[in-house]
Amino acid sequence: MVLIVALVAASFLSLAVGSADISLESVWRAIVAYDAADPEHIAIIDKRLPRTVVGIAVGAALGLAGAVAQGLTRNPIADPGLLGISPGAALAVVVGIVAFGVTNPAGYLWFAFAGACIASALVWFIASRGRDGATPVKLTLAGAAIGAATTSLVSGLLIARAEALDTMRFWQVGALAGRGFDVLGPIAPFLIVGVVAALFLGRPLNLLALGDDTAAGLGLNVGRTRLLVGAILVVLVGTATAVAGPISFLALVVPHAVRRFTGPDYRWILPYSAPAAAAILLFADVAARIVARPSELQVGIVVAVVGAPVFIALIRRGRAAGL
Question: Which of 111, 115, 120, 121 is nearest to 83 (CA)?
Fold first, then answer.
């Protein structure tokens, strides 16, 4: 209930705060009794509401993705970047900018999604070689190697093409500005399927956390389950990254914070992580609009600035939960 209240409060603040602040009373009237002749109502419904919905969707997807990634790899610091998914999306966006001249979020949406899928498939292919198959350690190492390689390729392409650098630098830090239903709509079915499927992964992730031998002894098909969980992770990260860019630390920090209240049971971690991450992302987006007025920061910068010290504090206090 606290998380739901926080998410509702963050949503109302997201609708009220901007280059020109609007009262919460006007926000409520715009929602329940929209007046097409009122400029404040137009700003709320046509401009800020789509951005808020995108923030909720992206935040929920990243919160779930972080919990799923850590459960899949049994690695408490696993996140989409470590597994090579976000770097793969970034490389595909750069290719779209350089080779096809794509310059807007709606245009490079599918490039980012395809890049995330291809990078994940490559990580899985490398990690699954050998007798043991795709073990957590091999997945993590393969993801780190693919991530490093794709990041180097991105840097090389951006240095060679200055116009690509100008376009890419705004996407690469993660942003909700300029993201509306035109960006979210085409990929919303994938996002909805990924979120719903992830919420049913509690029991498989709990069994994987016990180790492959124990999970297999309890009747779990480890290889098939890991492949299914990896596919859901790719959908979550691919859609979120395609819409808003690679937003760092959110998927890493939120599952750790949630474990302080839920314990290690993924049947609770997953449903708690979604609203927690969505609320944090909206609060960060509101802060990004305030600290640099009349302009605004990219929300990815605010999340990183806040998330890094929070994660360090969790580690120093010994609260970075093990798996």
Answer: 120
Average pLDDT, the chain: 86
**Contact status, residue 126 vs residue 152, Cβ threshold 8 Å:** no
Evaluate whether 134 touches 127 at the Cβ level (below 8 Å).
Answer: yes
SS3 79: coil
pTM above 0.85, yes or no: yes
* pLDDT tens-place string over residues 162-171: 666 766 776 7
Domains of the chain, each with CATH number or no CATH:
1-45 (no CATH), 55-316 (1.10.3470.10)
Q: In 45-60, which positions are buried (b, 16+ CB within 10 angstroms) versus exposed (e)?
A: beebbbbbbbbbbbbb
Give residues with Cβ within 8 angstroms of 217, minimum separation 6. Answer: none
- The span from the CA of 58 to the CA of 37, in Å, is 31
Query: Tens of pLDDT along 180-221?
Result: 888 888 889 999 999 999 999 999 999 998 888 898 898 899
